[in-house]
Amino acid sequence: MLGFNFFSKKQWEVSSIPDLTGRVAIVTGGNTGLGYITVRELARKGARVYMLSRTETRALAAIAKIRKELDSELKPELEYINFDLLSLKSAKEAAEEFMRREKRLDILVNNAGIMATPYELGPDGIEIQACNGTGHFSLTVSLLPLLKETAAMPDSHVRIVNVTSAGYLFAHMEKPDFTSLESLNQKAWSTWGRYGLSKLTNILFTNELQKRFAESGITNIYCLSVHPGAVNTELTRGPLQSWPFLAPLWSLAKMFTMTSEQGALTQLYAATSPEIEEKDLKAALLFPIAQTKSKSSLAKDKDGKLGGDFWTLCEALIRQKA
Ligand SMILES: NC(=O)c1ccc[n+]([C@@H]2O[C@H](COP(=O)([O-])OP(=O)(O)OC[C@H]3O[C@@H](n4cnc5c(N)ncnc54)[C@H](OP(=O)(O)O)[C@@H]3O)[C@@H](O)[C@H]2O)c1
Question: Where is the signal peptide (predicted)?
Fold first, then answer.
């Protein structure tokens, strides 16, 4: 939740998003908060955007709201596919449904997430915050054939953006281990520790994806991790569930947060800016607004052990559950 740099040298703006006509994008959790603005701004620039959300009524209401907000002359191309981050099968099926409908995927923004919820297992036996990582793994890996095909097309600019958090540093209070489902679930850890772990997996997944693309000779797909900043969204639903008595404190804290419009800038930059390629920001971690940030040594994962273990575990879970 930390990291808005008021003294940031440059301020990247939505007006810098290039024309996206002909490109196709997916944004998970696009019905509210940062995802909503991301969907809206990609559509404003001409991309066909798929909102992958768990609740159809919320998604369709959000799409209708975006249509109203955007100039009707733009005729925004907005679609919805059901996607539940908690279910590896749902994520895989969402990818399959998308690939039935589309012949390209230029931008994938893995944005959906929950924060600081009480310990609970999802339908696959995975702790629900850990699903911030595993659900997006299942979606992204299922979409890889189409992402690679798109990257082979002329003038393609394929981006995979994983929305993490500066809160990934909470995982450093313990020793992360991804060799088993039990060690991923970390029942004994604090609620914030588990959130941090899930956000660390978002970064490790970015690193590992980029490494695997490089190993298979693919150099024009850019994978990035983004911390949006401390933003006033519905993400506080989790902490309010864990500690309802702290509600007045959260209301106070909101006074020091960014708007969703400001918060979405860094992921929009990662998803669209030509600078990503010009500066060759492969597997970079970005902080607000549109700034590179060095990763902690755990997140750098120099020997690739954590990222490799996370990948292997997710693959095994998908084989069992999806
Ligand atoms: N806000 C911040 O200060 C902040 C800081 C650092 C990182 N982030 C990250 O930014 C991302 C977006 O968060 P936000 O602040 O925009 O929060 P938000 O307003 O609560 O939006 C979260 C989105 O994720 C969706 N989602 C949650 N669980 C899901 C599930 N099981 N399946 C599918 N979709 C699900 C929500 O859908 P429903 O509306 O149906 O619940 C909603 O669309 C998250 O990954 C978060 O960790 C946010």
Answer: none
Q: Which residue's C-alpha comes closest to atom 36 of ligand 1?
A: 29
Tokens, residue 247: 């509600």
For strand 107-110 and strand 77-82, is the pairing parallel, antiparallel, or unpaired?
Answer: unpaired
Q: How much is the pLDDT for 205?
A: 99
Distance CA 103, CA 101 (A): 7
Continuous segment of H or E residues that includes residue 291: strand 291-293
Per the prediction, the chain carries an average pLDDT of 95
Q: How would residue 1 be classed by pLDDT, with cut points 50, 70 and 90?
A: very low
Q: What number of residues does the chain have? A: 322
β-strands 285-287, 221-226: how paired?
A: parallel
**Average pLDDT in the 199-209 region?**
98
Q: Which residues line ligand 1 (CB under 6 A)?
A: 1, 29, 31-35, 53-55, 58, 83-86, 111-115, 163, 165, 227-228, 230-231, 233-235
Could you give the CA distance from residue 86 to residue 126 in angstroms, rounded to a whole number? 8
Asked, as a colleague might, if the bond just before 289 is cis with ω within 30 of 0, I would say yes
Q: Which amino acid is at 45?
A: K
Per DSSP, the three-state class of 38 is: helix
**Residue of 225, 252, 224, 253 lying closest to 166 (CA atoms):** 225
Structure confidence by residue, pLDDT tens digits, 182-195: 999 999 999 999 99
H helices present in 186-304, as ranges: 191-215, 237-242, 247-253, 260-263, 265-272, 275-278, 297-300
Residue 148 to residue 146: CA distance in whole angstroms: 5
From residue 15, how far is each of 18, 19, 104, 281, 318 by CA, in Å?
8, 10, 25, 21, 40
pLDDT of residue 214: 98
Q: Is the pLDDT of residue 7 over 80?
A: no
